[in-house]
Amino acid sequence: MAALFGTYDLLGPLDALGAPCPRVLVYAPPSARKRRNLDAIPRCVWLKAGPQLWMSTDGEVLLLATTQPLLFENLIRGA
Protein backbone atom coordinates (compact mmCIF):
# COMPACT_ATOMS: atom_id res chain seq x y z
CA MET A 1 0.00 0.00 0.00
CA ALA A 2 2.78 2.42 0.85
CA ALA A 3 4.34 2.01 -2.61
CA LEU A 4 1.07 2.93 -4.33
CA PHE A 5 -0.36 5.53 -1.96
CA GLY A 6 2.51 6.70 0.29
CA THR A 7 2.74 10.14 -1.29
CA TYR A 8 -0.97 10.94 -1.07
CA ASP A 9 -1.96 14.05 0.90
CA LEU A 10 -4.24 13.73 3.92
CA LEU A 11 -7.29 15.96 3.48
CA GLY A 12 -8.67 15.02 6.88
CA PRO A 13 -11.22 12.86 8.65
CA LEU A 14 -14.78 12.59 7.41
CA ASP A 15 -17.94 11.19 8.98
CA ALA A 16 -18.80 8.07 7.01
CA LEU A 17 -21.91 6.26 5.87
CA GLY A 18 -21.62 2.60 4.94
CA ALA A 19 -17.99 2.31 6.03
CA PRO A 20 -16.66 -0.27 8.50
CA CYS A 21 -16.37 2.52 11.11
CA PRO A 22 -18.03 5.89 11.76
CA ARG A 23 -15.10 8.06 10.54
CA VAL A 24 -12.71 7.64 7.63
CA LEU A 25 -9.56 9.42 6.49
CA VAL A 26 -9.59 11.04 3.07
CA TYR A 27 -6.41 11.19 1.00
CA ALA A 28 -5.88 13.03 -2.30
CA PRO A 29 -3.33 12.00 -4.91
CA PRO A 30 -0.56 14.56 -5.49
CA SER A 31 -0.85 14.30 -9.30
CA ALA A 32 -2.97 12.88 -12.12
CA ARG A 33 -0.35 10.15 -12.61
CA LYS A 34 -0.71 9.05 -8.98
CA ARG A 35 -4.51 9.23 -9.27
CA ARG A 36 -4.28 6.35 -11.75
CA ASN A 37 -3.12 4.14 -8.85
CA LEU A 38 -6.70 4.32 -7.60
CA ASP A 39 -7.71 2.24 -10.61
CA ALA A 40 -6.22 -0.75 -8.77
CA ILE A 41 -9.12 -0.59 -6.30
CA PRO A 42 -12.75 -1.31 -7.24
CA ARG A 43 -14.82 1.83 -6.77
CA CYS A 44 -17.29 2.19 -3.92
CA VAL A 45 -16.30 -1.12 -2.31
CA TRP A 46 -14.55 -1.50 1.06
CA LEU A 47 -11.53 -3.82 0.77
CA LYS A 48 -9.78 -5.22 3.81
CA ALA A 49 -6.15 -4.05 3.66
CA GLY A 50 -5.08 -5.30 7.08
CA PRO A 51 -6.38 -6.75 10.35
CA GLN A 52 -8.20 -3.51 11.27
CA LEU A 53 -7.77 -1.44 8.10
CA TRP A 54 -10.08 -1.03 5.10
CA MET A 55 -9.70 1.05 1.95
CA SER A 56 -12.05 2.37 -0.70
CA THR A 57 -12.14 4.95 -3.48
CA ASP A 58 -14.53 6.88 -5.65
CA GLY A 59 -11.85 7.28 -8.31
CA GLU A 60 -10.81 10.72 -7.06
CA VAL A 61 -9.72 10.17 -3.44
CA LEU A 62 -8.52 7.28 -1.29
CA LEU A 63 -10.53 6.48 1.84
CA LEU A 64 -9.01 4.60 4.77
CA ALA A 65 -11.06 3.26 7.66
CA THR A 66 -9.91 1.62 10.88
CA THR A 67 -11.61 0.53 14.07
CA GLN A 68 -8.37 0.97 16.06
CA PRO A 69 -8.15 4.46 17.61
CA LEU A 70 -4.35 4.32 17.84
CA LEU A 71 -3.97 3.44 14.15
CA PHE A 72 -6.41 6.24 13.26
CA GLU A 73 -4.27 8.74 15.21
CA ASN A 74 -1.04 7.42 13.65
CA LEU A 75 -2.49 7.79 10.15
CA ILE A 76 -3.50 11.39 10.93
CA ARG A 77 -0.02 12.21 12.19
CA GLY A 78 1.63 10.40 9.28
CA ALA A 79 3.44 7.95 11.57
Describe this structure as you would to a colleague.
The protein has helices spanning 2-5, 32-35, 69-77; strands spanning 9-15, 23-28, 47-50, 53-57, 62-66. By secondary structure, the chain is of the alpha+beta class. The protein has one domain (2-77). The protein has a 5-stranded antiparallel sheet. The longest helix has 9 residues, at 69-77.
What would you call the quaternary organization?
A: single chain
Apparent shape: globular
Beginning-to-end CA distance, first to last residue: 14 Å
- Spatial ordering of strands, largest sheet: 1-2-5-4-3
Tally of helical segments: 3
Number of domains: 1
Strand-residue fraction? 25-35%
| Share of residues in helices | 10-25%
Q: Provide the succession of SSEs.
A: HEEHEEEH
- In the predicted model, the low-confidence regions spanning at least 5 consecutive residues are none
- Give the class from helix and strand content and strand pairing: alpha+beta
How many beta strands in the DSSP annotation? 5
> Radius of gyration in whole Å, from Cα?
12 Å
The main β sheet shows up as: 5 strands, antiparallel
**Overall average pLDDT:** 89
List the helices and strands and how they pair.
Layout lengths: L1 H4 L3 E7 L7 E6 L3 H4 L11 E4 L2 E5 L4 E5 L2 H9 L2
Antiparallel strand pairs: 1-2, 2-5, 3-4, 4-5
Feature tags:
single chain, 79 residues, alpha+beta
What would a concise description of this structure say?
With 79 residues, the chain is α+β, with helices and mostly antiparallel strands. It has helices at residues 2-5, 32-35, 69-77, and strands at residues 9-15, 23-28, 47-50, 53-57, 62-66.
